[in-house]
Specification:
Elements: H1 2-7, H2 11-24, H3 34-51, H4 55-62, H5 67-82, H6 87-117, H7 123-129, H8 135-140, H9 149-172
Length: about 170
């Protein structure tokens, strides 16, 4: 630890550097379609954070305020701005999309860690076993339920983008 602090002044600086590294790895599309841009942004954040276990926690602690994170957010807001978004909706859309991606990555990481604590059992199976005490959870997970994280993530993207389209129409009216 002392050798590390010769290069990095504090834990806070280390978190800033790690968060910046995550943001540097985010690939953004060359597109003017705000929907396509947001999909690529979210998929990239999810992919990068899943490839770097534990990175979601420091991204969440630091926020999107490092230089590389600001570049990603600024470029994304620029696409939304060119598409006619009002400023507040552009900002919240960008941050919300990144939050969706990092939330999903965090859940996937937690599932992996927790499976070890449950003797390899997946979360759905543990919840199914509790269905006597929690009948609505049991009902939701009954039958051939299989939580496909990729489909769940993509559904969230669709819901998010559909909601933004509604908000844009309402603002225009």
């Amino acid at each position: 630890v002392s050798a590390l602090y010769r290069h990095v002044g504090s834990k806070e600086n280390l978190l800033l550097m790690c968060t910046d590294i995550v943001s540097q790895k985010i690939s953004l599309p060359e597109t003017t379609s705000w929907q396509d841009h947001l999909k690529v942004l979210a998929r990239s954040y999810r992919k990068v954070t899943l490839s770097m276990p534990g990175s979601v926690e420091f991204v969440r602690e630091v926020g999107l305020t490092t230089p590389a994170a600001c570049v990603v957010v600024d470029r994304s807001i620029g696409v939304l701005r060119q598409s006619g978004f009002p400023g507040d909706l552009a900002y919240m859309t960008c941050i919300g999309m990144i939050s969706h991606a990092t939330d999903m990555a965090l859940h996937e990481e937690q599932d992996r860690r927790n499976a070890g604590l449950r003797g390899g059992q997946e979360a759905e199976e543990v919840l199914r076993q509790m269905n006597q005490d929690y009948p609505n959870i049991g009902w939701a997970l009954s039958g051939d339920f299989n939580l496909d994280r990729e489909k769940y993530f993509e559904l969230g993207l669709r819901v998010y983008i559909d909601g933004i389209e509604i908000a844009l129409r309402e603002r225009a009216a």
